[in-house]
Amino acid sequence: MQLDSLYQEVILDHYKHPQHKGLSSNFDAQVHHVNTSCGDEITLNITLEADIVSSLTWDGQGCSISQASVSMMSDLLLGKSINDASAILSSFCELMASKGTSTGDADLLEDAVAFAGVSKFPGRIKCALLGWMAFKDVVIQAQSK
Amino acid sequence: MQLDSLYQEVILDHYKHPQHKGLSSNFDAQVHHVNTSCGDEITLNITLEADIVSSLTWDGQGCSISQASVSMMSDLLLGKSINDASAILSSFCELMASKGTSTGDADLLEDAVAFAGVSKFPGRIKCALLGWMAFKDVVIQAQSK
Amino acid sequence: MPLSVEEIRKDFPIFERTVRDGKKLIYLDSGATSQKPNAVIDAESDFYRFHNSAAHRGVHQLAEEATDAYEGARETVATFLGAPGGSNEIVFTKSATEALNLLAYAMGNAAPGSRFALEPGDRIVVTEMEHHSNLVPWQQLAQRTGAELAWFEVTPDGRLDLSALDTVISHGTKVVALTHQSNVLGTINPLDEIVRRAHEVGAVVILDACQSAPHMRINVEELGIDFLAFSGHKALGPTGVGVLWGRINLLENLPPFLFGGSMIEMVTMTSATWAPVPQKFEAGVPNMAQAVGLAAALDYLTKIGMDNIHAHESALTGLLLDKLLAIDKVAVIGPTSNTERGSALSFTVSDIHPHDLGQFLDSQGIAVRTGAHCAWPLARRLNVSATTRASLYLYNDEQDCQALADGVVAAQRYFGSF
Amino acid sequence: MPLSVEEIRKDFPIFERTVRDGKKLIYLDSGATSQKPNAVIDAESDFYRFHNSAAHRGVHQLAEEATDAYEGARETVATFLGAPGGSNEIVFTKSATEALNLLAYAMGNAAPGSRFALEPGDRIVVTEMEHHSNLVPWQQLAQRTGAELAWFEVTPDGRLDLSALDTVISHGTKVVALTHQSNVLGTINPLDEIVRRAHEVGAVVILDACQSAPHMRINVEELGIDFLAFSGHKALGPTGVGVLWGRINLLENLPPFLFGGSMIEMVTMTSATWAPVPQKFEAGVPNMAQAVGLAAALDYLTKIGMDNIHAHESALTGLLLDKLLAIDKVAVIGPTSNTERGSALSFTVSDIHPHDLGQFLDSQGIAVRTGAHCAWPLARRLNVSATTRASLYLYNDEQDCQALADGVVAAQRYFGSF
Ligand SMILES: Cc1ncc(COP(=O)(O)O)c(C=O)c1O
Ligand SMILES: Cc1ncc(COP(=O)(O)O)c(C=O)c1O
Fold first, then answer.
1. Cα first-last separation, chain C
2. What is the pLDDT of residues D138-193, one digit of tens each?
3. What is the pTM (predicted TM-score) of this model?
4. Beta-sheet strands, E only, within B1-145
């Protein structure tokens, strides 16, 4: 069933047990992103040490895809350099744009390749990208401080 | 040929030799009406004596139908009482709305029954009515003075 | 007269297709947009095929035919709404959204002191259950003019709280704009008292009939309102056409909105005067084919009978309410009683996010809408950031309702590991 | 490559019908609205038949398909215009008239002091040959903001008088809005100098491409302009759809126009923020089927080739000019030389009022337009209260031109008794 390619076990796991959820009280920058078409919301806090993402916490509400995606993302990007994080971000965006033709770069994306199936559901791509776009934004803000 | 039912000889006559054209210098009321869809224009002057249309002059430019119609109208309504003129006006409007099914009330409309054919050409009804609508308007203005 | 849904569906070509690998299409999203019968699709194509030309703008036969078709559509709409002033009271817009913006902008164009001018001290009244299209234009008008925006609140069971009617619609209220039926809750709002009070203080009543005009008999005279807007595409009609109805004397006094060809009387380089109503509000070559398609839609609806359609939907709504409320963890957002409500039915299923539920239902061929349904303030007031909405129309039947209930249960099973 | 008009006509069902008791239809009114090929009619119907649903608004398969179709149409338009910023630079409106009003109103919504705000001392520049749709919105904006309206005059032979370019486009000019091709004269305006000067003083250039985009290759980047508007229905597309193109950074800075569903980011009862471009400018359920139909039209045009179409029309225009000028008492209003001109051709025949001429031609099956063509100031400047206009397109041929010339001569005979 095609639906199973969307709702991978690891995605539902993250949805049930979100990682790094709960906003840190200190941060270099904070952004709030909303998926205007369905109302999903995410607030993302970042702290950078030198070039490294030393803290990445979030809060939000929304569907399993948006929440699992931000959970997995924070797991993945925490401790990475901005450069490495950007490469992972690009790779994830590429995967989302692949319309189901790519399985994702497992070296870079690790568990996040589970989102490959989302790319077949155009209505859900924005959900999967919500946290990632917030990350892109929050980095710019943290760096321009 | 259907076109001939539109361009009756008497209509072309009035177009070539318009009656009461040239605005009187004295008047009780003056109106300026425009056919917005084609730019035809008519200015109409009226003078009432008691209840009688004692002067009705006009100037304007436009197609044969609009110019002939106002010419014939001024011929027809000059000297009539407001009541009689209104009856003639109603009868003309009815004829225009008849979609070619009526030949017009010759007792009231006299030569203006020649416009019966116009009612088959919806694009031209406004042309034929231009002067008559101006008359309706100018009477109201003259009476409210 | 009960509808023969089987017969009706034959008129709608989309039901010949399947979705998601051969599943039967169960379309429960008519509140977003309705499907179209062949009569409508053909009316629009036939206009292009046989009569296409710019209405009001030529002396040739095609222009005559196009004008007849377009103005004939206006007559049909006037009759459909029971417009007391006839077809001159009907303005074609591109959508209800445009119709509502037209009113707000036109009022914004009113000369200070004139009938529709708003200024500080004046009030615009809306409700908390408005669609964004009947809220944001008024927010903006209030901001531009300094008028105050006030609103009726919504009770927990999804009705308008009219307890403070006379204070909310205060002296100084110039506009009362509200929805006839909530697109989220299904609530049908009672109008009599609101109209009475609005007119008492000299305000005009603007009705957003997007969710009512397609589903029940509307007679603007009986409702006593002043303006009404609805969208063609929710009423079996084409996309790209909406309707504004207004009382003729009000339309005549309202300044124009869009400026350009066909809405003018005279133009110089620095000034312009306006054509009579309704042309004054229809700048540019109009959406003729869509107006003609909408007329075909209204003819289709009228033939089946608006009262029959409403009765059919009411019966299905009652059934669906019962079925959904019987499912564990399902909460209906909006009136759970089947009185004064239409067939838009929003609900939540605890533990399953609406977006996930909608996705699951889609995999079963069931089309619903999820989210805040363009009514964020309402969602916030009712404390639900998103819901799942099923909305019914004349082509839905009991099987569709059963399929939805079964789908919800199956979704609970699918996501049960949560 | 020369066009095969015979083949092309087979694509347009309207040419299968006759007019006025069996006469062949000679359609010379494409400047008002073009005829539609089957590809366009079918694209619109097929949307309703197979994919109809509200774009951007559902999780179900139909909503995905509708979104794809609608956004795909946006891509097609972006490619057609050579939009440097891609499809986000394309806003679907209901018409060119709405697109131009959108710009004027959105600028009117700009906060004082911001990029697009106009105030006393600022200037808006138009030309004397504008269609009312690109004149009256600017008149109104000038009136509302206190900005000054200035214009380029038209020379007796129907060209823009640019001799005072640098004074007309003064420092303080914020907007230069002009037509690419006059719908009355056929004149194609030279843009390079105007664009250079406008940008020198910091003004944006808004091009009304209603009469050019359907007839010649347009590349907005090469033209160097900032905004462009055209109507679908004049470009083989459906009625009820228009296009606004704008540079992405300008669109991003421009306040919205219509308010409502789908154009917002967040809404409370008293405030709202906006969605990104282009959604910010598309409130409500969009005219999806019409956008899809327009894309089919642009595909059709592109397949034939805009350069081929332009060459075809140029050749016919030259021919028609010769034929008309050879007739006694005929005067062409607009350039009589066939350079920098499109295929809209206005003329007068002394002693025969255009309305009567048009009526006579109609009786011969020939569809032309008569009047002031929504350009009153131009008519007044050229001292012709009305003209007869023939306008050509890819489905016209030499026989059509000959028929018109013969028709004019026959009209002179018919009305000869004058
Ligand atoms: C030059 C020009 N500008 C603007 C318009 C307005 O286009 P529409 O009526 O499709 O909005 C037209 C055609 O009517 C036109 O020819
Ligand atoms: C209650 C209500 N008002 C207004 C609208 C706006 O209609 P449209 O998007 O067709 O302009 C809608 C639907 O979207 C609606 O449901």
1. 46
2. 999 999 999 999 999 999 999 999 999 999 999 999 999 999 999 999 999 999 99
3. 0.96
4. 29-34, 41-49, 52-61
The arithmetic mean of pLDDT across residues C14-31, rounded, is 97
In 3D, which of B12, B27, B26, B3 has the Cα closest to residue B139? Answer: B27
For every residue of D65-120, DSSP letters joined together read HHHHHHHHHHHHHHHHHT-TTGGGGEEEES-HHHHHHHHHHHHHTSPTTSTT---B
CA distances from A126 to A37, A67, A141, D56 (A): 9, 12, 21, 11
Question: Which chains neighbour A (Cβ–Cβ under 8 Å, 3 or more pairs)?
Answer: C, D
Q: Is C401 a catalytic residue?
A: no
Rounded to a whole number of angstroms, the distance from the CA of D239 to the nearest CA of chain C is 5
Q: Is the CB of C179 under 6 A from ligand 2?
A: yes
Q: How far is the CA of D273 from the centre of ligand 2 (A)?
A: 19
Length reported for chain D: 418
Ligand closest to Cα of C241 equals: 2
Q: Residue D224, by phi and psi: left (phi above 0), alpha (psi -120 to 50) or beta?
A: left
Terminal CA-CA length for chain A: 48
Q: Do D67 and A122 touch (CB under 8 A)?
A: yes
Q: Sort strands C227-231 and C242-246 into parallel, antiparallel or unpaired.
A: antiparallel
For residue range D271-328, what is the model confidence (pLDDT) as tens digits?
999 999 999 999 999 999 999 999 999 999 999 999 999 999 999 999 999 999 999 9
Are C157 and C346 in contact, with CB atoms under 8 Å apart? no
pLDDT confidence tier of residue A1, bands split at 50, 70 and 90:
low
- Does B3-143 carry CATH code 3.30.360.10? no
Is the predicted pLDDT of residue B36 greater than 90, yes or no? no
Sort out which chain A residues have CB atoms less than 8 A from C376's CB and list them.
39
Decide if pLDDT at B1 tops 60: no
Subunits close to B (at least 3 CB pairs below 8 A): C, D
**ipTM summary value:** 0.95
Contact B54, B29 (CB under 8 A): no
Percent of chain B with pLDDT over 70: 99
> Tell me, what amino acid is at B9?
E
- Cα of D69 to nearest chain A Cα, Å: 12
DSSP state of A38: T
Instruction: Tell me which chain C residue has its CA closest to the CA of residue B126.
Output: C56
Bridge partners for D348 per DSSP = D331
Is B124 an interface residue toward C (CB < 8 Å)?
yes
CA angle C270, D32, D279 (to 5 degrees): 75
- Check if D341 has its Cβ closer than 6 Å to any atom of ligand 1: no
Residues of C in contact with A62 (CB under 8 A): 353, 355, 385
Cβ atoms D135, D126 nearer than 8 A: yes
| DSSP code of residue B52 | E
Q: Is C95 touching ligand 2 by the criterion CB < 6 Å?
A: yes
Looking at the complex, report in whole angstroms how far the Cα of residue C65 sits from the nearest Cα belonging to chain B: 9
Residue C283 CA, ligand 1 centroid: distance in Å? 10
Q: Which of C124, C125, C332, C374 is catalytic?
A: C374
pLDDT tens column, D185-215: 999 999 999 999 999 999 999 999 999 999 9
Indicate which residue of D142, D374, D390, D411 is catalytic. Answer: D374
Reduced to 3 states (helix: H, G, I; strand: E, B; else coil), residue D127 is strand
Q: What angle do CA D98, D177, D36 make, to 5 degrees?
A: 45
**Chain segment B54-95, per-residue pLDDT in tens:** 999 999 999 999 999 999 999 999 999 999 999 999 999 999
Beta carbons of A43 and A23 less than 8 angstroms apart: yes
Domains of chain C and CATH, by start: 5-30+306-415 (3.90.1150.10), 41-302 (3.40.640.10)
Rounded average pLDDT over B117-128 = 91
Strand C369-371 with D242-246, pairing: unpaired
